[in-house]
Amino acid sequence: MRLQTATWPDVEAYLEHSDAVIVPIGSTEQHGPNGMLGTDAICPETIAFGVAESMQVLVAPTLSIGQAHHHLGFPGTIALRPSTLLAVLVDVVRSLYRHGFRHVYFLNGHGGNVATVNTAFQEIYAQSTFGDASLSDLRLRLCNWYMSPTVGKLSKELFGDQEGSHATPSEVSLTFYAYPDDVKSTPMSPTLAPTGSIRDADDYRTQFADGRIGSNPALATVEAGARLFEASVNDVLEDFRGFIST
Q1: What is the mean pLDDT of the chain?
Q2: By residue range, what is the domain housing residue 135?
Q3: Each residue of 71-86: pLDDT tens digit?
Q4: Residues 106-163 pLDDT 10s
Q5: Whole-model pTM?
Q6: Best CA proximity match to 63, nearest among 26, 114, 20
Q7: Where do the H-state alpha helices sit in 29-113?
Q8: Which of 35, 121, 122, 201 is most exposed, with minimal Cβ within 10 Å?
Q9: What is the CATH number of the domain that holds 51?
């Protein structure tokens, strides 16, 4: 069940038997020469929809713009400041809580969001502790789909040391699976991107001219994406079921 296509009576009826919701969260940022700008949002959204096909759970609209200021050297990237994202997350959770949701599960596709999501969780819990709101029955969890054990093992099997850390063949494959009509084939030069640390947007563009870090997304395929989709859905299902049992 998708919140965006549901009516308010649909959600009211859903809340009679479940207080759980999945919130996909990602980013709109460059993903190398052949990666979609929405990769980090498309991946968790696609997985969340897969989970919803396996069990009755509501999927909220994807938070598709995240903390990606370091990618602003590449056209198309849209970024939120950490403070802006934190405020958005708090308001989203408080809105859902008001309606009766007590288990809010953030399914994340962007590493740059992790610190701010966890900080938002602490801000929300602090509001309860300091008496600003009664949220003692609220449960929050962050799951990063790309860090699940099965996905990590499969990525290693499929792409070995060419997986890298940004614009990876795994995430690009999953987007190709989700949008097969938008598959792009682009030569990579060098074949395997360099690695290293970054500071800001200008430094990123200087060091990694095509946006990749340590990866070779030319290896991405729809078939690999299908395998990664199945693995990630299974991992998230297991984690989510454990979460809502608490």
Answers
A1: 97
A2: 3-231
A3: 999 999 999 999 999 9
A4: 999 999 999 999 999 999 999 989 987 788 899 999 999 999 999 999 999 999 999 9
A5: 0.96
A6: 26
A7: 39-54, 82-99
A8: 122
A9: 3.40.50.10310
What average pLDDT does the segment 235-240 reach? 98
Asked whether residue 241 is domain-assigned, the answer is no
Query: In degrees rounded to 5, what are phi and psi of residue 31?
Result: -135, 50
With 0-12 / 13-18 / 19 or more C-beta atoms within 10 angstroms meaning exposed / middle / buried, residue 225 is buried
| Residue 214 Ramachandran class (φ > 0 left, ψ -120 to 50 alpha, else beta) | left
Report how many domains make up the chain: 1
**Distance from C-alpha of 228 to C-alpha of 230, rounded to nearest angstrom:** 5
Residue 189 lies in a domain: yes
Give domain status of residue 246, yes or no: no
Domain membership flag for residue 104: yes
CA distance 185 to 218: 7
Residues 6 or more apart in contact with residue 79 via CB below 8 angstroms = 27, 29, 65, 66, 67, 68, 69, 71, 72
Cα–Cα distance measured from residue 177 to residue 221, given in angstroms and rounded to the nearest whole number:
8
CA distances from 177 to 39, 87, 129, 238 (A): 11, 33, 44, 22
